[in-house]
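Protein data sheet
==================
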Amino acid sequence: MRKVFALLLALFSAAVPAQEVRVPVCFNYSCAATETVAFDAGVLEQARGQLLAASDPATERAVLAAVVGRLYREAGVQTPVGADRAGNYFDQGVDGRMDCIDHSTNTTRFLKLIEARGMLRFHRVLEPARRTRFVLQHFSAVVEEVELPVSLRPAVVVPDHVPLMLALCDCAEVLDDVPAPAPIPDSRPGERFVIDSWFVDNGEAAIVLSLADWLDGDGPNVQ
């Protein structure tokens, strides 16, 4: 009986892709339609490797934008969103088109998926932001840079003589020989950035802008 149970369990496990994650993706403007996309372990592990290789916040944002594009490309294979083009006018009337509401919703879902799996070290995911210029509104996904935990900062190399001197004498001044932790390049904890995929065709890296510049109207000239 145990052998039969073990065999059934093995067959069931083989039928379910390991670590597959399903995410709803909406499209056709204002999330009028929704389909589910399945991201397999290979796609997610590739994203993990790329993101955890980032050594500073700016690099993590650039990689994150590329990973978002990669997830949209995968979504475009499984759903009509592969037809989506930058802005709203190049794909008018096409099934799978996405406006900024669709994009900000989907990109935020992708970012939260990434965050929930521990792939982000320098940022946290916020709710979408809105900007209003004249009568037009635009939405985008947002991340906020965070202070890197001490446990994840580059290790400080203690010179060999420091432990020895501390063991032989009461000479705390020897601690002055321990170098200060290396600063993280271009670190700006608390600053917020948009990850805006509406500006690009399906599968391309999203546009990264500081939230302040984006709110001021910055971004590619697409409509």
In short: The beta strands are 21-27, 33-39, 123-133, 136-145, 192-196, 207-210.
